[in-house]
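Hi V.,

Quick status before I head out on leave. The structure for the redesign project is tokenized and pasted below; the design run finished overnight.
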């Protein structure tokens, strides 16, 4: 079974902004509480600081449940925001980042 088909894989796509984040919050919380989760951002077109709040929430839920959360292909703009807010070291990033 490929990683994309596994229950621990969550592809995020489109804009990840203050307008779209609320609709994704509970779904990500549920998935993070169920088991280890890899969140793939390779199809994210736009992200703002609301995306960081979402990621931190999912990370908190995952850790509270005793699971691991890994972020892959984080858009450079989102990584820059995380560094600006000095939370980049808190995020469980994979080595690969979206360019």
């Amino acid at each position: 079974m490929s990683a994309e088909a596994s229950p621990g894989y969550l592809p995020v796509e489109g804009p990840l902004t203050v307008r779209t984040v609320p609709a994704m919050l509970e779904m990500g919380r549920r998935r993070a509480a169920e088991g280890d989760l890899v969140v793939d951002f390779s199809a994210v077109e736009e992200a703002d600081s609301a995306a960081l709040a979402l990621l931190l929430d999912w990370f908190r839920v995952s850790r509270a449940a005793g699971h691991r959360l890994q972020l892959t292909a984080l858009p450079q703009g989102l990584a820059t925001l995380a560094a600006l807010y000095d939370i980049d070291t808190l995020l469980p990033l994979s080595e690969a980042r979206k360019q």
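Above is the designed sequence. Strands lie at 9-16, 37-47, 69-72.

G. will cover questions while I'm gone.

Best,
W.
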